[in-house]
Amino acid sequence: MKIVIAPDSFKESLSALEVANAIEQGFKVIFPDAEYCKVPMADGGEGTVQAMVDATQGEIINLTVTGPLGLPVDAFYGVLGQLDEAGNQTAVIEMAAASGLHHVPLTHRNPLLTTSFGTGELIVDALNRGIRHIILGLGGSATNDAGAGMMQALGVKLSDIADAPLPFGGAALNTLHQIDIQSLHPAIKDCVVEVACDVDNPLCGPRGASAIFGPQKGATTEMIEQLDQALEYFAHTINQQLGQSMNTYCRLHPGAGAAGGMGFGVMAILNASLKPGVDIVTKSVKLAEYCRDADLVITGEGRIDGQTVFGKTPMGVLNVAKLQNIPVIGISGCLGQNADAILVEGMNAIFPIIPSLQPLEQILSEAQINLTNTARNIAAIMSLSLVKK
């Protein structure tokens, strides 16, 4: 019997690899001789780098970069342990690692000032190492600068009417007078950039970056209006000056408003493609190959609910397994409202691991043992159908 274990992390308690290990441990009590194939998964959000590095036996690169407030912060990215289809090394970068909200104290959150420069520094480091395939996960950012800081780190010159470099932050976008891409990192033209993006917000307007994501980054009502106007002006100016040579007609593109407009920035300057995060991950870790000839696939996440079917890891794993007619079981920390939506999509069964009502701290601390016990019980039920009558 071949069993593929492909879960996401259980946030705040277990990494994806630790989840896979716990499930394997439980199943081995009943099926000690089965073949187990563990493939840590993610959907492009927090934990994607670690999951993909674990799945491919890659490595983590630690760096000190420019944080959202312009001060040094510790950040990281991953290099996968297997080459892509074109034979290139792949770097996986979470924007939040360098430009995330967690780097900004609550009292200092101000998207008029925060920058994505550090994310650009991570990209530069990867390019300088000869990497020519980059997967960038958007989400959790503290910025609203349309990727302007990232562009500057990559060598793009943004200047105001006095020919001075544009300051960091979303407010400064309204003073852009000239953009010069002649010093853009030369390796960009040879690099494939895929962006894990699971929102469809445009750059500006009532569903744009400033209006929807600005408040969580510290934006007041007045700031939102100022930031939205700055993004519109910034995109218009770039389109006027680079429209013939770059992909700058993307400000209305679904996802352009992701991560404070970083979606626009990567499409405009890096010619990046925006895709559902889980689709990028399943392809990059070659999940379909691992599933070949499998008898069962087990997946899961911290909470399975009605949103799981909209691009979360269990749904992505289910889609891969369904193409090969492999049954799928989901295990989660708990089941939320409309969790049965994923059963309608074809998952065979879902199981929560919490045995009783407990304080949250206890639930998180006991996740590993609860997960192992649940996996053992699932395996025991399966074994009943294998007993010869």
Automatic annotation (TrEMBL):
GO MF term list: glycerate kinase activity
InterPro entries in UniProt: Glyc_kinase_flavodox-like_fold, Glycerate_kinase, Glycerate_kinase_RE-like, Glycerate_kinase_sf
GO biological process, any: organic acid phosphorylation
Superkingdom of the organism of origin: Bacteria
Pfam families, A to Z: Gly_kinase
Keywords for the protein's UniProt record, in alphabetical order: Kinase, Transferase
Family, as annotated: Belongs to the glycerate kinase type-1 family.
The protein, known as: Glycerate kinase
Naturally occurring in which organism (per UniProt): Shewanella polaris
Lineage of producing organism: Bacteria, Pseudomonadati, Pseudomonadota, Gammaproteobacteria, Alteromonadales
